[in-house]
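Quick one:
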Amino acid sequence: MTLEICFEKPSNQKILCLGVYEGNEFLSPTDAWDKKLNGFLQQAINNSKFKGSLEQTLTLFAPDGSQLIILGLGMKKDQNELQWQKIGSSLVEALRASPTDEGAVEIHSLEGCDTAQVLSNIALGALLKSWRFEKYFTTKKPEELFSLKKITFLTLDFEDCRKAFQHLESITEGVFLTRTVITEPANVITPESLAHIAESLKKEGVVVETLEEKEMKILGMNALLGVGQGSHKDSKLVIMRWEGGPKSEAPLAFIGKGVTFDTGGISIKPAANMEEMKYDMGGAGVVIGLMKTLALRKAKVNAVGVVGLVENMPSGSAQRPGDVVTSMSGQTIEVINTDAEGRLVLADALWYAQDRFKPKLMIDLATLTGAIVVCLGSERAGLFTSHEDLAKKLTNAGEKVGELLWSLPLDDAYDKEINSDIADMKNIGGPRGGGAITAAKFLQRFTNRVPWAHIDIAGVTWTQKDLPTCVKGATGFGVRLLDRFVAENYEGRQ
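Output:
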């Protein structure tokens, strides 16, 4: 079920949500309602612990029998789009506890703020927080499932709000697609089925091609193919093109790791938590979601998404530690550890993207290393690039949407760690640590000097706790970041 968001003129509503700044300073509509109720709101708040803090809520029943929800707006000086989105999140949680399946919001006249921007971002936060994956529940009672159906924002500026929200709603479509494919189990999301999902973007105007194993073999993609050779499910390479810019303009290229399940192969992982490896296709999920968002909002840019889709399984035909493969670039790789497989997939995908499309830049996303989780936990993704301007643009975009990055080094000294005694390189570094960096240095060897950034999303693709705009599970981290990156730097939109 998708939460319906509406913007309409003020009218009588059964459940009404009003805003209060920290310190219990009323907005003008809240003050107007307080006067209608003869000071009931002020009195009720004074008799509670409610202080108007961000994400704080207070549910009241007025003397006339109507239900009111007071939303804390936080400090007046801190108002920004991320704060408004958090208000939308708290709005959803408060309405879920109400006895009906819809509610209305009358929050406007924030000092120095544009109403359309405020309400569209509150709506965005509410919509992002509302997403649930309840497909496989069969015994839960209806009241245990997410039942909120509609939120109506009451404002005289409803036309401007609808227009402002239209772009943001396109972003949620991409985020929700990403969250869905990451959450689906590996018996549902396979290289073939994920390729079909990418192909469904054709109806949005995306040009989609799928390369089969035979075609990849001809191209020399033995690094990618080696990862999937132990599975009975064929590997795929999917190419998605959105052509919204001038025909002569080089595209932006986004490359995603799509290991639909990662057992580790012959270097098999421990059993504990292995079920989480269904989301090892998170990078591919982000790229597919991003391409959907760009298409839905008719982005004025040329973009190409390339995702390598494989399943890493142990079997009699699986790749062995010590095998040497020749990548599409012609460089040879000694496979020391078959659980360091994502970089092998990306090696051929990166080379294919730069060789065929001659892109303006390349950005790859991957749940690549456990080392990045040790380094940054689940608060930030790791960013690796030698291009300072690209790092700045990505970091700024991440800060604006709340998807934070942290730059790590790519010094040449780390490159020596992946030199092999019998091939051009090996797929893991030495025992001295720095695993996220040596993995990035490995990828850098396949970029052919094209401006490139690698984002390791291993720690942020899945959350073990509720976040402001996401419940426990798949986050969709990366879709909003890259959409903002594209919009602000390559479409001329501020």
